[in-house]
Amino acid sequence: MSKPRTLPSVRRNGVIGHTVVALEDEIESIDGLRVSTRSRTWLDLARRLPVSDLVCMGDQLIRVPRVAFEGRTRPYDTLDGLRTLVGRHPNLQGVVRAREALHLMRVGADSAPESLLRLAMADAGLPEPELQLALRPTDAVSPTADLAYRHRRLAIQYDGEHHLLDAQIFSDRRRDKAFESAGWTVLILGKDDLVDGCRPAVSKIKRLLRTAWLDHPQASGFADAG
What we know:
alpha/beta
Protein backbone atom coordinates (compact mmCIF):
# COMPACT_ATOMS: atom_id res chain seq x y z
CA MET A 1 0.00 0.00 0.00
CA SER A 2 1.38 3.36 -1.05
CA LYS A 3 1.04 6.86 0.27
CA PRO A 4 2.41 10.20 -0.92
CA ARG A 5 5.81 11.06 0.54
CA THR A 6 4.22 13.90 2.48
CA LEU A 7 2.40 11.33 4.63
CA PRO A 8 3.76 8.55 6.87
CA SER A 9 3.81 5.06 5.38
CA VAL A 10 1.19 2.49 6.36
CA ARG A 11 2.07 0.38 9.41
CA ARG A 12 -0.31 -2.53 9.89
CA ASN A 13 0.07 -6.26 10.32
CA GLY A 14 0.01 -8.04 6.98
CA VAL A 15 0.40 -4.81 4.99
CA ILE A 16 3.60 -3.66 3.33
CA GLY A 17 3.59 0.11 3.20
CA HIS A 18 5.78 2.52 1.30
CA THR A 19 5.70 6.08 0.08
CA VAL A 20 5.86 7.21 -3.54
CA VAL A 21 6.01 10.27 -5.73
CA ALA A 22 3.17 9.92 -8.26
CA LEU A 23 1.47 12.51 -10.43
CA GLU A 24 -2.31 12.62 -10.75
CA ASP A 25 -2.34 11.07 -14.22
CA GLU A 26 -0.44 8.08 -12.80
CA ILE A 27 -3.39 7.31 -10.49
CA GLU A 28 -6.88 6.13 -11.40
CA SER A 29 -10.01 5.40 -9.42
CA ILE A 30 -11.70 1.98 -9.52
CA ASP A 31 -14.89 1.63 -7.46
CA GLY A 32 -13.77 4.58 -5.38
CA LEU A 33 -10.33 3.12 -4.64
CA ARG A 34 -7.30 5.04 -5.86
CA VAL A 35 -4.83 2.70 -7.58
CA SER A 36 -1.81 3.18 -9.78
CA THR A 37 -2.40 3.02 -13.54
CA ARG A 38 -1.19 0.01 -15.51
CA SER A 39 1.73 2.03 -16.82
CA ARG A 40 2.78 3.29 -13.41
CA THR A 41 2.49 -0.24 -12.03
CA TRP A 42 4.82 -1.40 -14.81
CA LEU A 43 7.34 1.25 -13.80
CA ASP A 44 7.07 0.41 -10.09
CA LEU A 45 7.68 -3.27 -10.83
CA ALA A 46 10.94 -2.37 -12.56
CA ARG A 47 12.62 -2.42 -9.16
CA ARG A 48 11.79 -6.13 -8.76
CA LEU A 49 11.38 -7.77 -12.17
CA PRO A 50 14.05 -8.72 -14.73
CA VAL A 51 14.17 -6.90 -18.04
CA SER A 52 12.56 -9.77 -19.94
CA ASP A 53 9.46 -9.66 -17.72
CA LEU A 54 9.25 -5.89 -18.09
CA VAL A 55 9.36 -6.28 -21.87
CA CYS A 56 6.53 -8.82 -21.75
CA MET A 57 4.41 -6.49 -19.61
CA GLY A 58 5.28 -3.47 -21.71
CA ASP A 59 4.43 -5.25 -24.96
CA GLN A 60 0.97 -5.89 -23.56
CA LEU A 61 0.53 -2.23 -22.65
CA ILE A 62 1.37 -0.99 -26.15
CA ARG A 63 -0.14 -3.73 -28.33
CA VAL A 64 -3.08 -2.94 -30.60
CA PRO A 65 -6.18 -4.53 -28.99
CA ARG A 66 -8.49 -6.92 -30.80
CA VAL A 67 -11.79 -5.07 -30.72
CA ALA A 68 -13.99 -8.13 -31.16
CA PHE A 69 -12.56 -9.76 -28.04
CA GLU A 70 -11.66 -6.80 -25.84
CA GLY A 71 -14.19 -4.11 -26.60
CA ARG A 72 -11.56 -1.38 -26.90
CA THR A 73 -9.79 0.22 -29.83
CA ARG A 74 -6.79 1.90 -28.23
CA PRO A 75 -3.76 0.43 -26.47
CA TYR A 76 -3.33 1.10 -22.78
CA ASP A 77 -0.27 3.21 -23.55
CA THR A 78 2.33 3.94 -26.21
CA LEU A 79 6.10 3.75 -26.29
CA ASP A 80 6.28 7.53 -26.24
CA GLY A 81 3.91 7.62 -23.28
CA LEU A 82 6.02 5.14 -21.34
CA ARG A 83 9.19 7.05 -22.20
CA THR A 84 7.60 10.21 -20.82
CA LEU A 85 6.61 8.37 -17.65
CA VAL A 86 10.12 7.00 -17.15
CA GLY A 87 11.59 10.45 -17.80
CA ARG A 88 9.54 11.91 -14.96
CA HIS A 89 11.18 9.64 -12.40
CA PRO A 90 14.92 9.56 -13.17
CA ASN A 91 15.86 8.54 -9.62
CA LEU A 92 13.27 5.81 -9.11
CA GLN A 93 14.70 2.44 -8.13
CA GLY A 94 14.68 0.18 -11.19
CA VAL A 95 14.50 3.02 -13.72
CA VAL A 96 17.62 1.76 -15.51
CA ARG A 97 15.91 -1.60 -16.15
CA ALA A 98 12.79 0.23 -17.32
CA ARG A 99 14.84 2.20 -19.86
CA GLU A 100 16.47 -1.00 -21.12
CA ALA A 101 13.06 -2.64 -21.48
CA LEU A 102 11.76 0.29 -23.50
CA HIS A 103 14.44 -0.31 -26.14
CA LEU A 104 13.34 -3.93 -26.48
CA MET A 105 9.56 -3.48 -26.54
CA ARG A 106 7.66 -3.79 -29.82
CA VAL A 107 4.06 -3.29 -30.91
CA GLY A 108 2.60 -6.57 -32.15
CA ALA A 109 3.36 -9.20 -29.52
CA ASP A 110 0.04 -10.72 -28.48
CA SER A 111 1.37 -12.77 -25.57
CA ALA A 112 4.29 -13.08 -23.19
CA PRO A 113 5.60 -16.24 -24.94
CA GLU A 114 5.78 -14.31 -28.21
CA SER A 115 7.77 -11.56 -26.49
CA LEU A 116 10.15 -14.04 -24.86
CA LEU A 117 10.66 -15.81 -28.18
CA ARG A 118 11.50 -12.52 -29.90
CA LEU A 119 14.03 -11.67 -27.19
CA ALA A 120 15.63 -15.10 -27.48
CA MET A 121 15.88 -14.71 -31.25
CA ALA A 122 17.64 -11.37 -30.79
CA ASP A 123 20.04 -12.88 -28.24
CA ALA A 124 20.84 -15.61 -30.77
CA GLY A 125 21.77 -13.02 -33.40
CA LEU A 126 18.80 -13.68 -35.66
CA PRO A 127 17.35 -10.82 -37.75
CA GLU A 128 14.41 -9.10 -36.09
CA PRO A 129 11.15 -10.58 -37.39
CA GLU A 130 8.01 -8.71 -38.31
CA LEU A 131 5.17 -9.10 -35.83
CA GLN A 132 1.58 -9.90 -36.73
CA LEU A 133 2.55 -9.99 -40.40
CA ALA A 134 -0.42 -10.06 -42.76
CA LEU A 135 -0.08 -12.49 -45.67
CA ARG A 136 -1.98 -9.99 -47.83
CA PRO A 137 -1.12 -6.53 -46.45
CA THR A 138 -4.01 -4.75 -48.20
CA ASP A 139 -6.61 -7.27 -47.00
CA ALA A 140 -8.23 -6.39 -43.68
CA VAL A 141 -9.15 -10.03 -43.02
CA SER A 142 -5.86 -11.52 -44.18
CA PRO A 143 -4.40 -14.35 -42.09
CA THR A 144 -1.45 -13.24 -40.00
CA ALA A 145 1.72 -14.75 -38.57
CA ASP A 146 2.80 -14.03 -35.02
CA LEU A 147 6.39 -13.55 -36.18
CA ALA A 148 7.64 -13.76 -39.74
CA TYR A 149 10.34 -13.12 -42.30
CA ARG A 150 8.57 -12.00 -45.45
CA HIS A 151 11.66 -12.19 -47.65
CA ARG A 152 12.26 -15.74 -46.48
CA ARG A 153 8.58 -16.69 -46.62
CA LEU A 154 8.83 -18.09 -43.11
CA ALA A 155 5.79 -17.72 -40.85
CA ILE A 156 6.20 -18.53 -37.14
CA GLN A 157 3.13 -19.21 -35.07
CA TYR A 158 3.08 -19.67 -31.30
CA ASP A 159 0.01 -21.72 -30.43
CA GLY A 160 -0.84 -21.62 -26.73
CA GLU A 161 -3.36 -23.78 -24.91
CA HIS A 162 -6.42 -21.97 -26.31
CA HIS A 163 -5.36 -23.17 -29.76
CA LEU A 164 -6.40 -26.69 -28.67
CA LEU A 165 -10.09 -25.74 -28.81
CA ASP A 166 -11.93 -27.25 -31.80
CA ALA A 167 -13.00 -23.92 -33.28
CA GLN A 168 -9.49 -22.52 -32.93
CA ILE A 169 -7.91 -25.62 -34.46
CA PHE A 170 -10.10 -25.17 -37.56
CA SER A 171 -9.19 -21.48 -37.77
CA ASP A 172 -5.49 -22.24 -37.37
CA ARG A 173 -5.60 -24.81 -40.15
CA ARG A 174 -7.15 -22.31 -42.54
CA ARG A 175 -4.52 -19.75 -41.51
CA ASP A 176 -1.63 -22.12 -42.08
CA LYS A 177 -2.98 -23.45 -45.40
CA ALA A 178 -3.27 -19.89 -46.69
CA PHE A 179 0.42 -19.27 -46.01
CA GLU A 180 1.48 -22.65 -47.39
CA SER A 181 -0.55 -22.12 -50.57
CA ALA A 182 1.37 -18.88 -51.09
CA GLY A 183 4.67 -20.75 -50.90
CA TRP A 184 5.48 -20.04 -47.26
CA THR A 185 7.00 -22.38 -44.70
CA VAL A 186 4.92 -22.41 -41.51
CA LEU A 187 6.59 -23.24 -38.19
CA ILE A 188 4.21 -24.05 -35.34
CA LEU A 189 5.69 -23.67 -31.87
CA GLY A 190 4.28 -24.64 -28.49
CA LYS A 191 5.29 -24.29 -24.86
CA ASP A 192 7.78 -27.16 -25.10
CA ASP A 193 9.74 -25.12 -27.64
CA LEU A 194 10.19 -22.31 -25.14
CA VAL A 195 12.00 -24.31 -22.47
CA ASP A 196 15.64 -23.59 -21.64
CA GLY A 197 15.41 -19.97 -22.77
CA CYS A 198 13.61 -20.87 -26.03
CA ARG A 199 16.56 -22.89 -27.29
CA PRO A 200 14.45 -25.52 -29.11
CA ALA A 201 12.49 -22.77 -30.89
CA VAL A 202 15.60 -20.83 -31.87
CA SER A 203 17.26 -23.97 -33.23
CA LYS A 204 14.23 -24.73 -35.41
CA ILE A 205 14.10 -21.16 -36.71
CA LYS A 206 17.81 -21.15 -37.54
CA ARG A 207 17.48 -24.44 -39.40
CA LEU A 208 14.57 -23.19 -41.48
CA LEU A 209 16.28 -19.89 -42.27
CA ARG A 210 19.19 -21.84 -43.77
CA THR A 211 16.90 -23.59 -46.25
CA ALA A 212 13.95 -21.21 -46.67
CA TRP A 213 13.09 -19.50 -49.95
CA LEU A 214 15.17 -16.36 -50.39
CA ASP A 215 14.43 -13.05 -52.09
CA HIS A 216 17.94 -12.40 -53.41
CA PRO A 217 17.91 -8.60 -52.98
CA GLN A 218 17.50 -9.31 -49.27
CA ALA A 219 20.18 -11.97 -49.07
CA SER A 220 22.80 -9.81 -47.44
CA GLY A 221 20.48 -8.98 -44.57
CA PHE A 222 20.32 -12.63 -43.56
CA ALA A 223 23.99 -13.51 -43.92
CA ASP A 224 24.29 -14.28 -40.21
CA ALA A 225 21.01 -16.19 -39.88
CA GLY A 226 22.79 -19.51 -39.39
